[in-house]
Design goal:
6 helices, flat, mainly alpha, about 160 residues
């Protein structure tokens, strides 16, 4: 059986943390070369981003508290989603119970995604509001730098001449 509660919890944590992790330079994540658990790289990037933005100890504490609050808000919803997924997994394919569980799971997942996007937007707004104007400017530069790096990596390789 799949480890769905752990995966759901990890996914929620990653989404909650993504407003901070997205600005870390791309080469940092790949520099260690050692395999890690999913999401561990994002967690390690926070201190680097905090340093890059020059966050004060009070700002760091506030950001961590906001992330924790967002995660705690998501817990009941993720538990409900886990239960719906278990009901779906335990139903016999082709049965009426299976169809009902599939529909119920689809509705619950749809609502969960919408709620998560709204929580993430709220979290990003709160974190952004903690930043000074200079830190906001630096964050914008870091995001632009990351986007340029991603575009360069996704650009097709030049065709070899014959």
């Amino acid at each position: 059986m799949r480890n769905l509660p752990t995966r759901s919890t990890l996914f929620t944590a990653l989404l909650a943390c993504s407003p901070l992790a997205f600005a870390a330079p791309p080469q940092q994540a790949a520099s260690s070369g050692t395999p890690t658990a999913p999401g561990a790289e994002h967690a390690r990037q926070h201190p680097d981003l905090f340093d890059q933005l020059g966050l004060t100890d009070a700002q760091r504490s506030s950001v961590r508290q906001l992330i924790q609050q967002s995660f705690e808000q998501a817990r009941p919803e993720m538990e409900a989603l886990r239960q719906k997924r278990m009901a779906f997994d335990n139903a016999t394919p082709g049965s009426n119970q299976f169809k009902a569980a599939a529909n119920d799971l689809a509705e619950t997942e749809s609502s969960a995604v919408r709620a998560q996007v709204m929580r993430q937007a709220d979290l990003r707004t709160k974190v952004y509001n903690l930043l000074t104007p200079e830190q906001r400017t630096k964050l914008t530069a870091l995001v632009s730098q990351r986007e340029r790096g991603m575009q360069q990596r996704s650009a097709p390789a030049p065709a070899a001449s014959r």
